[in-house]
Design goal:
This protein is an alpha/beta fold and 478 residues long. It folds into three domains: 177 residues, Rossmann fold; 157 residues, 3-Layer(aba) Sandwich (Rossmann fold); 84 residues, ACT domain (Alpha-Beta Plaits, 2-Layer Sandwich), CATH 3.30.70.260. 41% of the residues lie in helices and 18% in strands. It has 18 helices and 18 strands. The strands form three sheets. The protein has an eight-stranded mixed sheet. Helix 8 links the parallel strand 9 and strand 10. Helix 8 crosses helix 13 and helix 11 crosses helix 14. The two termini are 37 Å apart.
Length: 478
């Protein structure tokens, strides 16, 4: 039985400040709702409490999820608090999505409610970009010390290893932190037809923290080396007018095109023709647009910052701009390499292989494992048999025959911790044991080693960044 199967019949509340109908909805809303829909499809009764905007209905059933909308950008927190307090006996678990400030669910649901907090990225340095100094200080306090007090040892989900590190280092949250990355909706890519001229594409929300102006300024420099360079930017947002003015100021009307909001068909055409995507954000929880480009065999240039350093494998699926580099230099280097069609095709294959490791169903399974384990912990009143540390170990082994493989899989899924991750390919296994070093992992697997017909003893390694994101036997050659 999978973690999603174990949630069948459970009543799960998701709280998030926006939903997909909001004009400013982005990747965080996609993440929340894709996982909510997967929970509902598995048989859970899922309610999403979120803010209301324009003429969005107060109550709506959409793709198996019951939506309740109340409040605006900030008072949604007050409305959600009242809802959780009033209905706390109705739900088995709460998934609390933090977008700078969490909903502080434990204050309103009580200590006997399973609660999981999901964090896309840490906002400590971003509050000052949007609020006056006093309000920014309040935001930092709520995200850090207050959240640390309220959530205690409850589990946290981060969307990438670097977000997990920032949560531990900057916010100093104390509970176990699990990595559950974004997934992808499978799209095309087989009919890719790169343009003859160098072509950069970016599909994203146009907001200041994305720093898309850096890409526009880089284009002004790069067109001297690449006179036929084309840059396609699709999306809308509060930075759109300033970007249009910058394009005009730099006389880039023939080089940079701002498409605004585009249809799915037009978006796919933009990716189909692109050589490269560039993501100049100062910080991302993950960088969903990177993997969306990778699906089309399009590599990425990004700064070496949290989130993006997880989504881009430097030199394999793209290039990271280091502390001693510049965006212009790195993009120029990338376009030079990609002008060789053979090199571009090889990198494109690696991009597609990397993106193929991610799916919303797998992300939902990972989040379900955390929610299921927390429900079981609250119900039993017992703690975990391993510490909530961030170290993890990967065990790899192969058994001799199919019968032994079936028995080994059954043992692993029944005896390991609910949040451990098991991947099987025929008779070969890759197991991620969270909160354990190699000695603890060996002890956890000792009984299996004695019982199973193994080709060789398990190989135990400290989990790498890519292991935390996706278990796979397939290596990506650089």
């Amino acid at each position: 039985m999978t973690p999603l199967d174990r949630l069948a019949g459970k009543r799960i509340l998701f709280v998030n400040w926006r939903d997909h109908t909001h004009p400013q909805a982005g990747g965080a809303e996609v993440y929340c709702e894709e996982l909510a829909r997967s929970f509902a499809a598995a048989g859970a009764e899922v309610t999403l409490f979120t803010s209301r905007h324009l003429d969005a209905p107060v109550v709506e059933l959409h793709r198996g999820v019951r939506y309740i909308r109340s409040g605006r950008t900030f008072d949604v927190y007050v409305r959600a608090a009242a809802f959780m307090r009033e209905r706390r006996r109705h739900f088995d678990a709460v998934v609390d999505f933090q977008n700078g400030i969490p909903f502080f669910a434990p204050l309103f649901t009580g200590h006997d409610m399973a609660t999981v907090c999901v964090i896309h990225h840490v906002h400590q340095k971003q509050f000052a970009l949007h609020f006056p100094a006093p309000l920014a200080a309040v935001g930092r306090m709520l995200e850090g010390p207050v959240a640390r007090l309220v959530y205690g040892m409850r589990p946290v989900v981060a969307v990438s290893p670097s977000t997990r590190d920032a949560v531990r280092r900057a916010l100093r949250l104390r509970g176990p932190i699990h990595v559950v990355p974004n997934g992808l909706v499978p799209r095309g890519g087989g009919d890719r037809d790169p343009a003859a001229e160098p072509r950069i594409a970016l599909v994203t929300r146009l907001v200041p923290q994305k720093r898309i102006d850096l890409l526009v300024r880089a284009a002004a420099t790069l067109r001297d080396r690449f006179p036929s360079l084309q840059v396609d930017i699709a999306g809308t947002g509060p930075a759109e007018a300033d970007l249009a003015a910058l394009v005009t100021e730099l006389s880039l009307e023939q080089t940079v095109r701002l498409h605004g909001r585009v249809s799915d068909e037009r978006r796919d055409e933009i990716w189909r023709r692109a050589w490269l995507t560039v993501v100049p954000s100062v910080q991302e929880g993950w960088g969903l647009t990177v993997l969306e480009a990778n699906q089309w065999g399009v590599p990425c240039v990004a700064f070496d910052v949290p989130g993006l350093r997880d989504a881009v494998i430097d030199g394999t699926t793209g290039w990271l701009v280091g502390a001693d580099g510049t965006l212009e230099e790195t993009v120029g280097h990338a376009l030079g390499i990609l002008s060789d069609r053979s090199a571009a095709d090889s990198m494109g294959e690696r991009c597609r292989a990397w993106s193929a490791r991610f799916s919303w169903q797998d992300s939902a399974r990972r989040l379900a494992a955390v929610v299921d384990a927390e429900i079981a912990r609250v119900d039993s009143g017992r703690g975990s048999r391993r510490t909530p540390g961030d170290q993890a170990t990967v065990a790899r082994f192969t058994v001799t025959d199919d019968t032994s493989a079936d028995e080994a899989e059954s043992w692993l899924r029944s005896r390991l911790r609910r949040t451990d991750d098991v991947s099987r390919q025929s008779r070969s296994f890759t197991v991620l044991l969270k909160g354990s070093d190699e000695l603890e992992a060996a002890a956890a697997l000792a009984d299996l080693v004695e019982r199973a017909e193994l080709v060789a003893p398990p190989r135990l390694d400290v989990a790498l960044q890519t292991d935390l994101l996706s278990l796979s036997a397939e290596e990506l050659a650089g």
